[in-house]
Amino acid sequence: MPIRVLVVVQPSVSHYRAPFLRALIAQDDIEFELVGRVNRAMGSTGDPAAASEEILARVGELRRIGLLKALYWDRGLVTKVLRTTAGAIVLEGNVYGVSNWIAIAVARIRRRKVIFWGHAWKRPESGAKLRLRKAFYRLADGHLTYGDWAPAFAASVGLDARTFVPVYNSIYSRRELASEPPRTRRPTRTQGALSLLYSGRLTARHQVDQAIVSVIAANERGHDVRLTIVGDGPERERAEELSRGSDAIVMLGAVYDLDRLRELYEDADFAVSPGATGLNVIQALGFAVPVIAASGDPQSGPEIEAVLDGVTGVLYPAKGAGEALTEKIVALASLPDETYASYSAAAKALVEERYTAEAHAVAVARVVKHILTS
After folding, report:
1. What is 175-354's CATH topology?
2. What is the pLDDT of residues 227-261, one digit of tens each?
3. Topology of domain 3-170+356-373, CATH
């Protein structure tokens, strides 16, 4: 009889979580009972916010209610934990969820294992926040993290790093990425140009304005650099203003269709991520497109770890980023094909190893099974 585990899907049951959830459900050794928040409303740009009806039919819906300041309550969570026959509960590892604290108490009374799923830490922390988070994290039997940095930081502040296990993250399945072989040269190499693609939200923390300014500066130095911007958000108007008058910059708005995204990445030499790096780099690397990203940006998530400098792409310092990004773009314009091919191959291999929906699901199942049987 398979092990039964209740999972609160993080961060929500959205369209990009669907491949991972299909792979998770397909695991043989564990029967996963799924609950989570669902955003059923379409975004203003047609963003398919929720997963397909096929996935939604497998998920018990939770409703989030805001409390004081950052505190919140997920309606339905405690009831699910109280009634489930699961031997382990995978909860959001968020200290501000009041319902999480109650759910943990209920799980312990029922002698269920408790596992957290979340970032744990994205950056160093100290003081009262660190003490509170450490106390909260000690309540769990294990932690599913998005990257390798969090376990190392946990050890540095006196927690058991062995309980923090990276399972990484994902967007697409292996099947969806199967047609993207590693590249042997840059797509625009024969044209003497450099084609960049930004795909993501247009917000202040994503700093797409830096990419626009840097591309314009590189072209003023006599280079032929092009930038395609895919995405929408509150900074779109400012981005349009900055790029006005430049034929090198094209703004397409939000694109969610996989085939259309595939076409856009096929024309790109590099993806660029000036700030708040996250799943956008996993998307690019999955298409075998190396990434240019800012290192040391406090807004970036653990996915920045996938951009290995000189291996799957290149990094530049977030401090003084405008000039640093321009210099990096200029240098990449003359990158040898052999080096570029090695970046592309390493990018593809890393995603296949860690960041596909199947790899993500297998990692989660492996860690959960180990916790339940140890």
Report:
1. Rossmann fold (3.40.50)
2. 999 999 999 999 999 999 899 999 999 998 899 99
3. Rossmann fold (3.40.50)
